[in-house]
User: Fold this.
Amino acid sequence: MTRSSPPKQTPPQGAEPTGRRATPQRLAELRGGPDVPQRPLDARALSALAANPGCRRRALLDGAGVDKSAVAQALGAPAPFGQSQFALVRGNVFEARVKADGGQVLLELLCSHTGADRPDPAEITVPELTADGPASRAFRTREALSAAEEGGWTLLDHPLLSLQVAGSTAYLEPDALAVHPDGTVSIIEIKSFPILDGAADPVKAGAAARQAAVYALALEDLRPVREQALLVCPKDFSNLPTGGLLPLRKQIAATRRQLRRLTGLEEIAAELPAGAHFAPAQEPGALAAAVEAVPAAYAPECLSTCELAFHCRDRARREGEVVALGRSVRGELGGLGTVSEVLAAASGDPADPAPDPAAALLRRAATLRAEALSAARSAGTSETCGEDTAAAGTGGPVPAPADPRTEAP
Assistant:
């Protein structure tokens, strides 16, 4: 196995796409000043944004690098969000184990699932990607991908990729990338959740596929990306690595479409009142006003992906928004956006023409419910009357049947 170092060069100026972008100074103002540290926009956050592209609030706060956990704490609605320390330590230990031999185990798993010939460890090139700052690391990664020779294997350990999203640069760090002898790239995701009896948790595997799709979008201009990523996890309840392939074609198409729908940060920030920012240390009323000035698109799925989900859920419930019941319910109700509108539509006369197809269905459902309740009450009344008649014929309550176990022989 050989290690190569790319030549020392200066990252090209102006190589990143231009457009209507929020300046670093403006993003620092949104965080509360240049002294407030910036939270990086990673693949996990981008996959959550792609799942809910209509949420301008999350797009702005994530793009500006705002610490949403601290904001939620200051607003009095903290969310138990994120991995536990135990899970993080376990994941780091497992990743170190599968990479201990320079990634030979990773490539063996990849070859076993793709049908490729296993390379000799001495023929695997592992470029040196360390550098100062994310921009320099991303430049080193681009150079290493460009320098990867066809006909051999190249393994990139913790490369750094860049992607323009809504006028902000996101730096993404896959666990590993493997350049095949044909020049294509496989994305490798290493997770600490187990693969039990050959099957992984579908929810966790889906989240890993969405993250891999984000990496694939960042790689499109650098190398051809394979449509399947390698997922490496512990086997059953052991610490031995096993793997499986994650299909990415649909995830890449959906993620690309959703990220393109995101509104630019400069456009969202222009709607804020003058001087508004999201520093958690400011007065709670001012912070709440700044947060509420940016429209949100809450859905119950946000509870597992966003630190501000509890705050947004409380507001959605106070406003009576039907989306708090789920996106499927919101979709079925058409133009009816609040619970009060739904109740008003359901209370109308079914014989009158409804202005909305959803209102006609609600009126029909309300009629059927009323008929069912009426029938149940009538059946209950009949049973009660029958019991009263039987009691009256015997001159008193109907005696319970005797227990044969207590009768004398």
Observations:
- The CA atoms of residues 60 and 265 lie 6 Å apart.
